[in-house]
Amino acid sequence: MSIYAMILIGLIALLHVYILWLEMFAWETRGPKVFKSVPKDLFTPTKVLAANQGLYNGFLVAGLVWSLLISDPIWAENVALFFSSCVLVAGFYGAYSAKVTTILYYQSIPAGIAILLLLTT
Questions:
Q1: Global confidence as pTM
Q2: Domain range for 25
Q3: Do 34 and 22 meet the contact criterion of CB atoms below 8 Å apart?
Q4: Residues 15, 117: contact at Cβ < 8 Å?
Q5: What is the pLDDT of residues 46-71, one digit of tens each?
Q6: How many domains does the chain have?
Q7: How many CB atoms lie within 10 A of CB 8?
């Protein structure tokens, strides 16, 4: 795995740590500032749903970080490809169902670039 792919995967993992924190721990405080299209009165009743989403982002972080810690280069690349693909698919679905441009720019495009880096190096 190239150093560029590793750096990008690390950055994607950091982004998902932020999303985990936002959805699991700051949904009612920071959430309304980030998700401005959601009415403020919906943050309290959707707190458990958001925390569940945050937990799934944590699984993505775990997989991406795991891929960076695997010593076997073939396994590391395969695990990185799998979890980067999960981020890509989640980003496409989020762009389709929620906020198109933001999710595409911050989630799908970096994951797609990481996949290209993994496949071409």
A1: 0.91
A2: 3-120
A3: yes
A4: no
A5: 999 999 999 999 999 999 999 999 99
A6: 1
A7: 22
